[in-house]
Design goal:
Layout: H1 20-26, E1 36-39, H2 46-53, E2 59-63, H3 67-78, H4 80-95, H5 100-116, H6 121-134, H7 162-171, E3 175-178, H8 182-192, E4 198-202, H9 211-214, H10 226-239, E5 242-249, H11 252-258, E6 265-268, H12 269-276, E7 286-290
Parallel strand pairs: 1-2, 1-4, 2-3, 4-5
Antiparallel strand pairs: 5-7, 6-7
Helix pairs in contact: 1-12, 3-4, 3-6, 3-7, 4-6, 4-7, 5-6
Length: 301
């Protein structure tokens, strides 16, 4: 791999919690001397897209438990022309509405259609894109019945960049997308690529610090068990020659859970930012845990 491109490729969908502000520098901490890239928690896809842009690996396996997200990416990969045309229709219809009330009514009508689930894949993927763009702050949230319930945001205009979408569709042709529990997905990839050199980037749901945030940061209806996750990853480290990075927000709870696992080194992402781009004015509370050697200036002792 050559020099990492300083231009960040944006994800095609709007998504809360994006890694965009940290991404350029974070990629410098990835172990690129590997064949296979594995990402069990895809999210917006922005990390994957920039890894692809920089041609860091040979094969790519990504996963997310959000079936609408994975359907969108598979549709963009396999049926991009029809998907983009459907999205452009939604944009035109929304943008020509003259006031907020009309736009809100349109949004909720489309949200109702999306929640009925009696629609074809291309239409569902187009509606998913629209709801994430026009919804509040790029939040994806469902109620106890599995219905998308994010309210309409205050977007006066929705734009689909056709050229960018087509470029992304080309980039992801070599990516295998899956929708399953992270452990099932990882086990599947390890079995398929057991003789290859592997790098896995994990961005699991953040550990909520407050009772209010616990209601919004979910993996499944039962939440996400970080203790179970880190034990599982630790078992992989003992069995397989694999390099792993886990990115997290820096909190007391994270310290309590992760400090007991000696096979991971704690890395401060904002130190990587200063190392790679010292003129960047930002103070991040993002950290990572890795089981391989990174630049010594970014390791917390």
């Amino acid at each position: 791999m050559g020099k990492i491109d300083s231009k960040v490729i944006n994800a095609p969908i709007r998504w809360a919690g994006s890694k965009k502000k940290l991404l350029n520098e974070m990629l410098h901490a990835f172990e690129a001397d590997k064949d296979v890239y594995i990402e069990p928690f895809l999210g917006s896809g922005i990390v994957l897209l920039n890894v692809l842009e920089n041609q860091m690996y040979r094969k790519y396996y990504v996963n997310d438990i959000n079936d609408n997200l994975i359907l969108f990416y598979n549709t963009l990969k396999n049926d991009s022309d029809r998907l983009i045309k459907r999205i452009e229709v939604l944009c035109r219809e929304y943008n020509r509405l003259s006031n907020d009330e009309e736009k809100w009514n349109y949004f909720y009508k489309k949200r109702d259609s999306f929640n009925k689930k009696q629609i074809r894949c291309v239409t569902r993927s187009a509606l998913f894109w629209f709801l994430m763009k026009a919804g509040y702050n790029g939040v994806y949230r469902v109620n106890s019945n599995g219905k998308f319930n994010v309210p309409c945001g205050k977007r006066n205009k929705i734009v689909c960049n056709k050229e960018k979408m087509e470029e992304i569709s080309k980039k992801i042709q070599n990516v295998e997308f899956s929708c399953m529990d992270y452990n099932v997905f990882i086990d599947m990839v390890l079995e398929k690529e057991k003789k290859k050199s592997l790098f896995m980037y994990c961005d699991p749901p953040y550990i909520p610090e407050t009772e209010a945030s616990q209601k919004h940061i979910l993996y499944t209806q039962n939440g996400f068990e970080h203790e179970k996750f880190i034990r599982y990853v630790g078992e992989i480290c003992n069995k397989v020659d694999i390099s792993i990075m886990i990115s997290m927000a820096e909190t007391k709870k994270v310290e309590q859970i992760y400090k007991e696992h000696s096979y991971f080194i704690k890395v401060k992402i904002d130190e990587i930012v200063r190392m790679v781009n010292p003129t960047k004015k930002m103070k991040s509370k993002e950290i990572a845990f890795v089981n391989y050697k990174v630049n010594e200036s970014s390791v917390i002792t």
